[in-house]
Amino acid sequence: MSEFFKIDAHLLLIAIAGIMALLAAVVPEMLKKLHLSAPIIYLILGGIAFWISGAGVIKPLRQLEEIKYITEFVVLVALTNAGLRIKDPFKWSTWKYSFRLLIIAMPVTIAAATFLGWWVVGFAPATALLFGALISPTDPVLASELQTSEPGKEDTSKVKLGLTAEAGINDGLAFPFTWFAILFITKGPDYQNWLGEWFLYYFLLKIAIGVVVGLLCGWLLYKLIFSISNKDTIGKISRGILSLALILLPYALSEIIGGYGFLAVFFAACIFSDYEKHIEHMNNLHDFNEELESFVVAVIFIGTGVFIAMHYELLFDLQILAVALLMVLVVRPLAGYISFINTGLNHFQRFALSFYGMRGIGSMFYLAYALTSAEFDEPKKLMAVTTATIFFSVLIHGVSARSVQKRIKKYDATNEDAK
């Protein structure tokens, strides 16, 4: 009888993975008519699972290395999807609004978050700098309703295109500022000893390597796949295997050479989206990536829900709550709105582009990356304020995104008819 109904950790993990896969398949479909996003449900389910089963059965990812590798893969999948979505990725008209978010809103957000982390939460300067860096990138996963259309479908929305392009590139641009915090704590506050190294190597060179490797790798992959294939065989190429190659190869090559892999993956996907000849296959790639993304998002946010349930008392800390809400409701919206002065955008477009700078999985990756690279003060409190910011972003943006999407569609349709 001992062979029946036995439960061990390995089998339990397999069962949990199966449940998460089922949720990833069902939950997004169930929510299509509701004003909710899937991550909100996953957070709630993670909290419920913890309270029902207790920490003895379901545990969050306590190992930072595990968090880093899982969130890394989620971001890679999301960046590939963002790159495949962007039509005409090498035209200035595609980037003119997101460029302002990158050079104005992102630095302002980093500076404001650093100040709030130091002044309100009481972080040491290096930890406050890290908080500013990791909370700055816009997440390409959350509120996908506000991303531009999938490959092959025309989308004239300046708001959707701007948010997708920004999210695709600033997940990589957060790396130099994360390294600034790491160098600050490892080499000391006397920045004159390492500022030149940071700017030349961690900022200029690593960004350039990531972009160049991504463009070359994307071009080579595209030529390799579609030059050796004909009309009869191209449809037989596995979209899953090709998608994984597009995700993994640019990232690995860029990191090996010394560049930022996130940028390489995004620009490699942009190369694919720039060709319309094989748009049907691009749609297949995008569809597979979305399925893969749905599963890993379920895993991450259920785990986040468990963490919130375990450390819920930290989320009632008034300092943490204040900083999290200020980041979501004031800092990013204000920084974004300032970025679009004298652009010709109306108030609604400026609001949507500014307010929906969502915080999410990229922040979790940078948190884990930095904490495994150097010893920062108060890591538990840093994790709490980061998680709280993500929680409020998921809740506020997820609940309101669908309504805003409808208004964007109505506005764009009205403008198109007026032309």
TrEMBL record:
UniProt subcellular location: Cell membrane
Membrane-topology descriptor: Multi-pass membrane protein
Cation/H+ exchanger transmembrane domain span: 22-402
Presence of keyword Transport: yes
Spans traversing the lipid bilayer: 7-27, 39-58, 101-121, 199-222, 257-275, 295-312, 318-339, 351-370, 382-401
Listed InterPro entries: Cation/H_exchanger_TM (IPR006153)
Keywords, sorted A to Z: Antiport, Ion transport, Membrane, Transmembrane, Transmembrane helix, Transport
Protein's name according to its UniProt entry: Cation:proton antiporter
